[in-house]
């Protein structure tokens, strides 16, 4: 059933850009009340507070979550799987900046930037590799993967996308299902991890997968830290067998001071900033505009959450 149309509340932070986007699409933005039918949730956390709001306002029929990944709300979504509400996320909305960051990490690691930026003297060596013509594996097939394929095209790489569904991804050289991940890693020079974090994908890149990679391959993770086994990654980097890693996400996160990853060879870490607030606010406003239009007009939502799959 389509959601029941009515006033929309934007909480806990009703940023002017979000209110304007909803209003421009025909939505009626009002404070949270018994009349509320649409809820735009703007916090990346506070799942317990959101759950209380939903319990106190059972007439809410559509909920918009703020991020592409919804793992922070996994338990809540599981409990509300059959509540009849429509749930949407921002999946795909931030794909461009995250893909851009992923490419930057890959290039930095391939060119040995982590070591070179720490140099305090002129050190000449021949270390460093090009991305041109490389064998690339992309784990995940969502919006980030699609944008990454566009960015990688000028480098004339050969790309293998690994995904849950048995369906081709336009722009990829080939597409395989997740059960074949270990098989395709054997020739990968660069691996991008851009999948959603679910119970099925947690630790999808572990010791066995890292061992399957050719010597000196590079791993880039811009999705969720839990997709990669951190201990196995540290071991692979310290052994020198893995060529390097570019990480915008880690497990644990924040990564504590003194953690071995900080000093691991050729490891470039950024503190989960692939999409900064300056980038995400206008992009989330755009997603709000699209989905408010769908809410009031009875058309298809963008980023609808598959509550069975968990993303």
UniProtKB/TrEMBL annotation:
The keyword Electron transport does not apply. The keyword Oxidoreductase applies. GO terms for molecular function: glyoxylate reductase (NADPH) activity; hydroxypyruvate reductase [NAD(P)H] activity; NAD binding. Keywords: NAD, Oxidoreductase. Gene3D superfamilies: NAD(P)-binding Rossmann-like Domain. InterPro entries: D-isomer_2-hydroxyacid_DH, D-isomer_DH_NAD-bd, NAD(P)-bd_dom_sf. GO terms for cellular component: cytosol. Residues 110-274 form the D-isomer specific 2-hydroxyacid dehydrogenase NAD-binding domain. CDD domains: 2-Hacid_dh_2 (cd12159). Signal peptide: none annotated. This is Hydroxyacid dehydrogenase.
């Amino acid at each position: 059933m389509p959601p029941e149309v009515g006033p929309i509340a934007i909480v806990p932070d009703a940023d002017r850009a979000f209110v304007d986007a909803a209003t421009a699409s025909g939505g009626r933005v009002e404070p949270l009340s018994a009349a509320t039918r649409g809820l735009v949730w703007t916090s990346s956390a506070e799942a317990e507070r959101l759950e209380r709001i939903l319990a106190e306002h059972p007439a809410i029929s559509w909920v918009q979550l703020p991020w592409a990944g919804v793992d922070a709300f996994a338990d809540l979504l599981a409990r509300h799987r059959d509540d009849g509400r429509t749930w949407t996320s921002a999946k795909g909305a931030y794909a461009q900046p995250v893909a851009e960051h992923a490419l930057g990490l890959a290039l930095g690691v391939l060119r040995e930037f982590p070591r070179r930026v720490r140099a305090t003297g002129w050190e000449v060596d021949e270390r460093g590799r090009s991305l041109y013509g490389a064998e690339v594996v992309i784990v995940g097939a969502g919006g980030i993967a699609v944008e990454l394929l566009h960015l990688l095209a000028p480098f004339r790489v050969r790309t293998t996308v690994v995904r849950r569904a048995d369906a081709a991804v336009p722009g990829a050289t080939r597409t395989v299902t997740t059960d074949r991940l270990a098989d395709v890693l054997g020739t990968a020079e660069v691996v991008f991890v851009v999948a959603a974090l679910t119970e099925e994908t947690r630790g999808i890149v572990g010791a066995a997968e890292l061992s399957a990679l050719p010597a000196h391959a590079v791993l880039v993770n811009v999705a969720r830290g839990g997709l990669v086994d951190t201990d196995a990654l540290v071991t692979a980097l310290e052994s020198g067998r893995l060529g390097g890693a570019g990480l915008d996400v880690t497990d644990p996160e924040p990564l504590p001071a003194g953690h071995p990853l900080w000093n691991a060879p050729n490891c470039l870490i950024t503190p989960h900033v692939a999409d900064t607030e300056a980038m995400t606010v206008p992009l989330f406003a755009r997603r709000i505009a699209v989905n408010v239009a769908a809410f009031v007009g009875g058309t298809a939502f963008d980023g609808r959450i598959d509550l069975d799959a968990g993303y």
